[in-house]
Inverse folding.
């Protein structure tokens, strides 16, 4: 079973500095997972969004997915003893600055291992600039555990964050 917990935080220049940044920085990067109930799906997806214009209130959705090939900018390749995790940067999805648009293998997860992935970006539109941060926790497990990401540090940690200002 693959468990994905994806945090997306969106803000503008209004909360770039203090005191607004304090509230933004309180958005968690790990939470208790929602109930998966039986039968367990091949993939449990827990998405959490927090927007500046909504006071960084957490909005959560849970999805049970039947396929294990792709989610967001990740591709997954099941091998005999591990799961390969691949990532593709896209400026339209991840923002500036550029970080190389190519498929890259970022880590392998063995059974009962977890990983954390971080990326941020700057975007421009008609009203100005805005910023997006993604924190993604991944777990490749035999059994579901609602505190999977809270009980230990990840086995792998990939940080592609950049200086945005």
């Amino acid at each position: 079973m693959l468990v994905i917990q994806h945090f997306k935080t969106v803000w503008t220049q209004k909360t770039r500095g203090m005191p607004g940044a304090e509230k933004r920085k309180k958005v968690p990067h790990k939470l208790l997972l929602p109930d998966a109930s039986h039968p367990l799906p091949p993939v449990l997806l827990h998405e959490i969004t927090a927007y500046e214009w909504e006071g960084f209130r957490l909005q959560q959705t849970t999805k049970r997915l039947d396929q294990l090939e792709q989610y967001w900018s990740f591709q997954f390749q099941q091998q005999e003893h591990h799961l390969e995790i691949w990532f593709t940067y896209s400026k339209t999805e991840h923002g500036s600055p550029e970080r190389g648009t190519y498929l890259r293998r970022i880590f392998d997860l063995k059974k009962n291992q977890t990983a954390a992935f971080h990326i941020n970006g700057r975007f421009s539109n008609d009203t100005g600039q805005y910023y997006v941060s993604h924190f993604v926790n991944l777990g490749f497990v035999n059994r579901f555990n609602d505190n999977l990401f809270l009980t230990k540090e990840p086995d792998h940690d990939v940080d592609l964050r950049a200086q945005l200002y």
User: Anything to note?
Assistant: The mean pLDDT is 94.
